[in-house]
Amino acid sequence: MKNILAEIVAHKKIEVAARKEERSEEVLRQSSAFNRQPFSLREFLQRPDKTGIIAEFKRRSPSKGLINGEATVEAVTGAYCRYGASGLSVLTDEQYFGGSSADLIAARSINQIPILRKDFVIDEYQILEAKAIGADVILLIAECLEAAEVARLAKFADSLGLEVLLEVHSEPQLEKITAHTHLVGVNNRDLITFKVDFNRSCELAPKIPADKVKVAESGISDPAAIVTLKQAGFQGFLIGECFMKESDPAYAFEQFVTTLNALQQKI
Ligand SMILES: O=C(O)c1ccccc1NCC(=O)[C@H](O)[C@H](O)COP(=O)(O)O
């Protein structure tokens, strides 16, 4: 089986090396967004006036191919924000997801909620980029980083005031959690086989340290799943395809939230 994650990481190393040649760290540090005070995703996920949903803008993916080639980042993320998203996730990987830094910059310019830079971070330079384009949170994927790399990158992000979402898929990966990991995401999608197992989140939840905010990721398409995941201790729900696959992702999000609110009123 083709290991897409290994392929993405190999490509990322080449991309990052090229970008370092184009723009120095000094230039990134001079960006106007670099000195803004980031929003805290941890805090937004605990606000009762929000849904707990981290709504993702994702044009395509290795598992699904093209998801939405028409949607604009401004219309979609603006609606996500208006209808109660606790945070936004914006893909910035171009090669495999059709995203870009420009997408995140556009989302930042119109939304006042935390934004996760959704990418494959392997180098401090990408964390400086995240800060320079106005992100508040970075993703570290345990599957593609050694424990020492997670520790080093998380500490660096934390030193810049960015929060760290560490994504895990199996119990041994929980050992990579450090003091600089603010949120732990359980990816229900196996990034090698693409198989989605919704039970993965519920199995790992009790094993995540109590001081970390728990985020369930991938394959969530039913508001009832959020009720179940909340009962399992999750406060964040990263959802992309369920909204982006629709011709009107904004409407899909609004309908999802309406159903979720109705379900929660019955409990
Ligand atoms: O989605 C993929 O195909 C994929 C492949 C390789 C690495 C990462 C991948 N996806 C990233 C994600 O985990 C999702 O974008 C995110 O959790 C949202 O999932 P979904 O709601 O299922 O779109």
Quick rundown:
This protein has 267 residues and is α/β, with parallel strands linked by helices.
How many individual helices? 11
Average pLDDT rating: 97
Radius of gyration: 17 Å
So, CATH architecture? Alpha-Beta Barrel
Return the CATH topology.
TIM Barrel
Strand order of the largest sheet: 1-4-5-6-7-8-9-10
Broad CATH class: Alpha Beta
Estimate the global geometry from the Cα principal axes: globular
Percent strand: 15-25%
Q: The biggest beta sheet, please?
A: 8 strands, parallel, barrel
Helix/strand/pairing class, anyone?
alpha/beta
Distance between the termini: 44 Å
Pathway: Amino-acid biosynthesis; L-tryptophan biosynthesis; L-tryptophan from chorismate: step 4/5
GO molecular function: indole-3-glycerol-phosphate synthase activity; phosphoribosylanthranilate isomerase activity
InterPro entries: Aldolase_TIM (IPR013785), Indole-3-glycerol_P_synth (IPR045186), Indole-3-glycerol_P_synth_dom (IPR013798), Indole-3-GlycerolPSynthase_CS (IPR001468), RibuloseP-bd_barrel (IPR011060)
EC number: 4.1.1.48
